[in-house]
Amino acid sequence: MRNFFSKKALPLSGAPAVRRLKSYSAQSGYVYQYFYEGQRALRGRESGLEFVFTVSADRKTWHAVSVLVAEEAVCAWEEAHAHALSSTERYAVAKMALFQAFDERAAPPQMKEDVQVRHADVAAIIETLGL
């Protein structure tokens, strides 16, 4: 009965016409492969964007990883720096947060959890990117 009343996730947008397999050698020692699947607006208590990637550490098992970029974190940075982030810059923040999770999480099973991007993360990532 719960499935009957559950809300469906919004469809993804912004996906590339041709998915490109990319690799990342993490500091954890694993080499991850990933595809960018697209993004969607977050609904519920926390507004923002959800960037969805399909990830594998062994090229056999694949799973979706959501990088959740909170709107309040982005707005706080934008107000402090008087610069509005473009959609490309927001994607760059999400992708760098994914790489940070690859580096910090000890093993691939931990990558099944969502990656939360908060205000301090946004500031550190944008500083790293030199924006």
Fold and architecture overview:
- By secondary structure, the chain is an alpha+beta fold.
- Helices cover 34% and strands 27% of the residues.
- It is built from 4 helices and 5 strands; from the N terminus they run H-E-E-E-E-H-H-E-H.
- The protein has helices at 2-5, 71-81, 87-104, 119-129; strands spanning 22-25, 31-41, 48-56, 63-70, 115-117.
- It has a 5-stranded mixed sheet with strand order 1-2-3-4-5.
- A hairpin with a 5-residue loop joins strand 1 (22-25) and strand 2.
- The N and C termini lie far apart (48 Å).
- The model has no long low-confidence stretch (mean pLDDT 88).
Write the SSE topology:
Elements: H1 2-5, E1 22-25, E2 31-41, E3 48-56, E4 63-70, H2 71-81, H3 87-104, E5 115-117, H4 119-129
Parallel strand pairs: 4-5
Antiparallel strand pairs: 1-2, 2-3, 3-4
Helix pairs in contact: 2-4, 3-4
